[in-house]
User: Which sequence fits this backbone?
């Protein structure tokens, strides 16, 4: 285990699978790899602001245990762990034992430390990964820009003057900055896909209910999903597979489908043969700037997808998602809104207050619309296996920008950056956001690869084909 500092630094630019292979072969120690990640975080986080907490002692202790196991009688078994020694980090709404679960807020700093790790954190560590810290986000996951007034904005590593997206902005930025190859985030209305698009990394929003949310701070229980960000599709698929399965500690997530593992990794090498791929038009073309449409067209051309199709009831679906988000989020925080509204992030407080005033009849109707919308979209998947759409209406906007223009219409940035993702998460479909370069002169922009419920294998299969063809790539930013 005598890899040079330059060799370890070069390894840190690769994906998690390459890192695990190096540790498994003893070409590098887990301690050296984790230390390199911690050094990268220390050197770059002052500019990127992706991390809010770094668990240095825990990470190095865990890495040392891995190295010790490699030279013990458990060595052969340890080498089989698929993410052996791979550093990862999680959005700070995941429980980390010994830390308060902040969810991007000031108020939760007063909460007692978590007594145990979140379920998905445990599953990744059981596969050999090493947690190194917690990541910046919009307060209580209510936003698309991660301009958090409590800890500062997360900066886009490809242009530090621009947003990283949100609400999982720190999760996207940490991968793009080369701090870690793998992160976890949450997606209620687009909070994995928006940062993945703007930061130029791969992101997976699984089917609603696929992964247990046990040990994470909720935003909207009926819409929240958890999922990974990664530098490669093989990392994304592997992490997703390792996190699958029913809850193992009680039944604390009422939204978890408790499905058995259905591996997606074997599918990523199958190519595109036989797949019926459509390109979403109408709403999804009208609400995207030319650069986003160029990214979609490049992906469609690479896949040989020429048929345009419209999603039925899409505007009604998005309206329903807005109302459900507003009301459920407000109900969760109502006690604090009544007594300490001044401690909320101003960008989220006013929307929570508005949500608290919504008539119950509106919410009941929104849930009926959501059901009808899901039924109509399901019929579309009788004709198509996969659908394509831009992930964001444009590339990353400057930090502090209040407005942008889409198709001649002036819109507020913070709610409108999710205009193309929100209608998809409303009905819980699996989506992989793939990063495309060249549509914008300097910045990436993502494309959503969408499938029917429980068909994560299809979206990852298409993403892998695009990565193999060089159409989708997630390079580490130069900082």
Assistant:
């Amino acid at each position: 285990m005598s890899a040079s500092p330059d060799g370890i630094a070069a390894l840190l630019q690769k994906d998690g699978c390459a890192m695990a292979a190096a540790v498994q072969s003893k070409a590098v120690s887990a301690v050296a790899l984790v230390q390199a990640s911690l050094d990268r975080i220390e050197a770059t986080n002052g500019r990127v602001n992706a991390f809010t907490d770094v668990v240095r002692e825990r990470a190095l202790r865990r890495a040392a245990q891995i190295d010790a196991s490699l030279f013990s009688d458990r060595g052969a078994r340890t080498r089989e762990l698929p993410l052996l020694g791979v550093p990862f980090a999680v959005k700070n709404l995941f429980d980390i034992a010994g830390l308060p679960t902040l969810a991007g807020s000031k108020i939760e700093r007063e909460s007692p430390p978590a007594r145990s790790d979140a379920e998905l954190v445990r599953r990744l560590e059981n596969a050999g990964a090493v947690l190194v810290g917690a990541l910046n986000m919009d307060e209580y996951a209510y936003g698309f820009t991660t301009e958090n007034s409590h800890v500062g904005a997360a900066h886009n590593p490809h242009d530090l003057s621009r947003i990283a997206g949100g609400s999982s902005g720190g999760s996207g930025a940490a991968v793009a900055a080369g701090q870690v190859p793998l992160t976890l985030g949450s997606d209620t209305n687009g909070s994995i896909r928006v940062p993945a698009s703007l930061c130029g990394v791969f992101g997976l929003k699984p089917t609603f209910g696929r992964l247990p949310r046990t040990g994470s701070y909720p935003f909207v229980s009926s819409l929240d999903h958890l999922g990974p960000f990664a530098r490669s599709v093989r990392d994304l698929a592997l992490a997703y597979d390792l996190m699958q399965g029913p809850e193992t500690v009680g039944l604390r997530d009422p939204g978890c489908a408790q499905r058995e593992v259905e591996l997606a990794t074997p599918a990523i090498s199958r190519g595109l043969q036989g797949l019926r791929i459509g390109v979403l038009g109408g709403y999804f073309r009208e609400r995207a700037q030319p650069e986003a449409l160029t990214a979609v067209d490049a992906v469609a051309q690479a896949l040989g997808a020429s048929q345009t199709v419209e999603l039925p009831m899409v505007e009604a679906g998005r309206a329903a998602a807005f109302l459900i988000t507003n009301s459920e989020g407000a109900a969760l925080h109502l006690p604090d809104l009544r007594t300490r509204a001044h401690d909320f992030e101003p960008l989220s407080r006013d929307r929570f207050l508005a949500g608290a005033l919504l008539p119950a009849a509106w919410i009941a109707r929104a849930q009926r619309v959501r059901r009808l919308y899901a039924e109509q979209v399901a019929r579309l998947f009788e004709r198509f296996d996969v659908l394509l759409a831009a992930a964001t209406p444009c590339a990353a906007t400057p930090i502090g920008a209040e407005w942008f223009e889409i198709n001649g219409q002036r819109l507020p940035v913070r709610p409108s950056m999710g205009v193309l993702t929100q209608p998809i998460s409303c009905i819980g479909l699996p989506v992989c956001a793939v990063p495309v370069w060249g549509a914008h002169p300097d910045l990436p922009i993502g494309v959503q690869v969408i499938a029917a419920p429980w068909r994560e294998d299809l979206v990852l299969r298409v993403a892998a084909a695009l990565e193999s063809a060089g159409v989708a790539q997630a390079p580490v930013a130069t900082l």
